[in-house]
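Sharing a chain and its predicted structure for anyone who wants a worked example. Both blocks are below, sequence first, tokens second.
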Amino acid sequence: MKLMRNMSRTGRGLLTFGLAFCVAVGSMLAIAPPAWAGLEIESWHTENGARVLFLQSRNLPILDVNVEFPAGSGRDEPGKEGLARMTLALMKKGTRKLDEHRISEQLAGIGAQLSGNIDLDRSGFALRTLSYRDDRRVALAVLRDILASPSFPEAVLEREKVRNVAFLEERQTRPNVIVAQTFQKELYGDHPYAATGAGEPETIAALTRDDLLAFHRRYFVSDEAVVTIVGDVSTDEARRIASELTADLPRAGEPVLQLPAVTHPAESTEVVIPHSASQAHVRIGMPGVRRGDPDYYPLWVAVQILGGNGMTSLLNAELREKRGLTYSAYSYFSPYFRRGPFVITLQTRQDQAWDALDVALSTLEQFVTDGPTEAQLRAAKQYLIGGFGLNIDSNAELAGYLAMVGFYQLPLDYIDRFPDEIGKVTLEDVRDALQRRLAPSRTVTVVVGPTARP
């Protein structure tokens, strides 16, 4: 690695190549240990209340840092849908010290990569940089400035509003977008999780700079921050990095309010939206699991059997193999702080939409009633355990998982325990969880394509 160190000293332009080279080598070397090897994760709080998770990895001179806040799209106010996403996007577009061009130049000059991440619960930034002192100093200084001092330039906001409105107007003509947005709204009603994240053309157009400033001031606070550090630094260095990154953030004036509980629909609903697309898009679901849910592991195995394992799932067997109604069908859970959606999704010819929907619903009902076979359970567990290591085979992926662990206050050994917890799931566990948690008679169904049921 002496060559890489010399490169960082002699040529700014070569550093981009250096980081890309390290990333490529890291993938080939599988730089992260497997989940069951015992990850030595350290955790503490900074002086101003930010929670920190740190995992040292000395294999390559790379540092991955995630900083997240409870500032997801579920925090959008009525009439201001899209505010959380716009706030996050504009934070990278200018600070009190740097305009958007200087931000890009400084990060590109050292080969660093900065991306924003947002979902219903959380939003923040993921930084990847070379870990050499001079390089990481520049990258971390830029991130610190973005977190604490975004200027939300008026001209940039107006530009991004125009661009986003045009994007949304085009996007909302697509059947896959229509079915996803309609399903989310029908499932969650007036709950914050009904938010699509992107907003609506009219809500984006109405956003003001004051809206962004107020959202940032409310949610981007030090004692709600979760900092994840993975890579080539010592514990002392990680402590300094976390403290410096959050030093300029204000403390919360009051705790961020928890999102309300999610209720299950009282009865089934079916929404049909005509569309000229050749394929009908179908989405079926109900509230599912939350992070830390006691039924998480048996239901995770169950959804793998039902529709998570590609061509070998029950849904594909019934819809594709036996009847030729669709190329593929999937089921999945999206866990959040509150119960995220359980979803079955498929596409089929418009003239086959109702047959496919009925088969999907009957397959779900039979699965909930009877549960899986022992062979199906064994195959699903083997697949989940065997594939889990591939999900965390880089420092960046580990940083993402640790960010989730920190944000949802899961046990520090969550990653290590995952294979064991899946392995302990029994047939009775799955059947019990299915019958208690999934209600086929109270589903939300959205069909985009055909005009109506015959």
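Comments welcome. Residues 280 and 337 are 32 Å apart (CA to CA).
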